[in-house]
Amino acid sequence: MPDGLDFSPEACEYNTLYLREKMHNSAKIIVLVGLMGSGKSRVGAELSRLLKLPFVDADKEIEKAAGMKIPEIFETLGEAEFRSGEKKVMLRLLAAGDKVLASGGGGFIQPEIRAAIKEHSISVWLKASLDTLVERTSRTDHRPLLRGVDRAEKLQELIDKRYPIYAEADITLVTDHQSPKEMARRIMAEIDKRETAGKSA
Ligand code: S3P
Q1: Closest by Cα among 75, 72, 104, 69 to 88
Q2: 133-155 tens-digit pLDDT
Q3: pTM of the predicted structure, to 2 decimals
Q4: What is the CATH number of domain 9-196?
Q5: pLDDT of residue 195
Q6: 127 near 166, Cβ under 8 Å?
Q7: Which residue CA neighbors atom 1 of ligand 1 most closely?
Q8: How far does residue 135's CA lie from ligand 1's centre (Å)?
């Protein structure tokens, strides 16, 4: 067996075993954080495929728990209720079960969720430029925070507020022109580096 990650097409099984063995958290949870449009869901789905871990999208879990889509939760119950639901769902998802978890953009910003992420998982911030975020979020209209506002202005405001907080994640990766597959491989390589460093420390 090669000693390290091997990204040849036939190596998926090997990478999975290699990296899972190295991850010493009792629950192997990898949480992707970052702003809307940073690619958390697409990269997360790819990473879960490579690592053969279940993929969970926090926004979808919140929708399931509420029995409503996110825009409807914001409209009928308000943002504060959404945040309280987001906290309950995230704390439940972080309490147990190996998984790749794509958080909503505001998840890591809530102190209790952030503390639970730090305690139970390896966190990865997908850091994207304003241009990338504007381009990617303009393909859809399901994000209440970006409805009826100047998208670039709102995203810049969120960058200013949130980037110093996302920077507390275990791993930061700049993502602008890479495919989800490239990003997933980079995350695996970073986890590999981190776990190696952790074990030799
Ligand atoms: C939000 C991001 C959204 C969703 C909600 C609020 C935020 O998730 O949770 O609209 O506060 O940044 P995505 O980052 O997956 O779009």
Answers
A1: 104
A2: 999 999 888 999 999 999 999 99
A3: 0.92
A4: 3.40.50.300
A5: 80
A6: yes
A7: 105
A8: 16
Helix 12-22 crosses helix 180-200 at what angle (to 10 degrees)? 40
Question: Which residue type occupies 187?
Answer: I
Cross-strand bridge partners of residue 161: none
Instruction: Give the integer Cα–Cα distance in Å for 37 and 14.
Output: 31
Helix residue ranges, H only, the chain: 12-22, 40-51, 58-66, 70-76, 79-95, 111-120, 130-137, 151-166, 180-200
Q: Residue 125 belongs to what H/E stretch? A: strand 122-127
* pLDDT tens-digit readout, 174-199: 999 999 999 999 999 999 888 878 76
CB of 18 closer than 8 Å to CB of 5:
yes
Identity of the amino acid at 73: I
DSSP single-letter state for residue 146: G
* Ligand 1 residue neighbourhood (C-beta within 6 Å): 36, 40, 59, 70, 104-106, 143-145
3-class secondary-structure state, position 102: strand
